[in-house]
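Exam revision sheet. Question 4 asks you to relate a sequence to its structure. Input first:
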Amino acid sequence: MNGLSNENQVIEIADLLSAIADRAMETTLAGIKAGKISQKQAQEAISHIQQLSLLSGGLLTQAVKSIVKGLKISQAKLTELIDKAKKRIAVIETAAKFIDLLVDVLAFAAAAMTGKPDTIFAAALEIGKDVGLEI
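Answer key, C-alpha cells:
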C-alpha cells in the first residue's frame, strides 16, 4: 500500500516526525554540553527543530487534508526511513551532518504537508541518502 494514503498513516508519520524533533533537541543539548556543536550551530538546529515540531503538529491536526494519492513509497518504507533518521539524529558525527539530516527531515515534513507525491518522494530520497537506505 502506498504511504500516507489514509488518515492513520499520516498520523503515524506525524508521530514519528514529532519523536525526531524531541530526539534532535536532546541531541543538540547533549552536543552543546560535550562541545560537539557550537552555539551558532545549536541556534540553527533549534530553529529547525521548532519548525519540525510545528509541521508534525500540523500533520496531526490536518491528517485528513494531508492524505496523499499516488505516493510511490510504501508506508512500511516511510516508517523505516523515519525511524532510521531518528536513530541517526541521536548521534552527532559532525555538526554539519547532524544539521543536514535535520534539514532533510524538515523538508520531508514540509513536503508531506503539501500532499504532492513527487515532492515527498524527493525529500524521502534525501533522507535515504543521509541514513543509507535505498528508496
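Marking note for examiners. The chain is about 75% helix and 0% strand.
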